Known about the structure:
The chain is an alpha/beta fold. The chain has helices spanning 17-30, 48-56, 63-80, 91-100, 113-122, 144-153, 167-176, 209-220, and strands spanning 4-7, 14-15, 86-87, 104-108, 129-131, 160-164, 179-183, 201-203.
Amino acid sequence: MTEAVLFDLDGTLADTSGDLAAATCDALAAVGLPSPEPHTLHAYGSRGGRGMLRAGWSGDLDDALFQRAFTVFLERYALRMYESTVLFDGVGACLEQLARGGRRWGIVTNKRERYTRPLVKHLGFQPEVLVCGDMVPQSKPAPDSLLAAAAALGHAPAECVYVGDDGKDVIAAAAAGMTSVAALYGYSVRLNHPGLKGADAEIGTLRALPSVLKDLAQRKS
């Protein structure tokens, strides 16, 4: 039986793409580069600040210029990360059903801790465990953060399911020995990310997760 469900944050529980895109455009403009329309960057929300900057500017960025832009991105995102971020449909209902079923849950994200903790609090989440990308030696697609979360909950990896919207989430879950569920409503599906096809199951909304967990349990029994 699945004892714990771990979730990615950006693109899985919360749609943070608007604020990430706005900070990206601010950063590019600050270093003298043209900024794209913010909505064109939303699909890259799971790639973090560095990935968003690369998506926003297709030309060459030397290391010094890129670092300047990234520094501004971090500053601007800290100021803007509550402006348009919202929960995806079905988050509340899903977490309530997990609690009623006695399943524990947590968040495992590549986002830095300094941004994740205040955002999680702002969104009203109370996960039993929270592991961020800068809290472990290697972030996803390495399994370190998923294994750390399972250990913190006192569960074997095989007792955990990881839900994420990016190919690196599927890879990390497999490396950790966890079952993976691809969130097809998230960002990477818009880019036809091939890594999602390797997931053990798929959902089009978090409302479907409880029934998918039952199906996965039946497969294992």
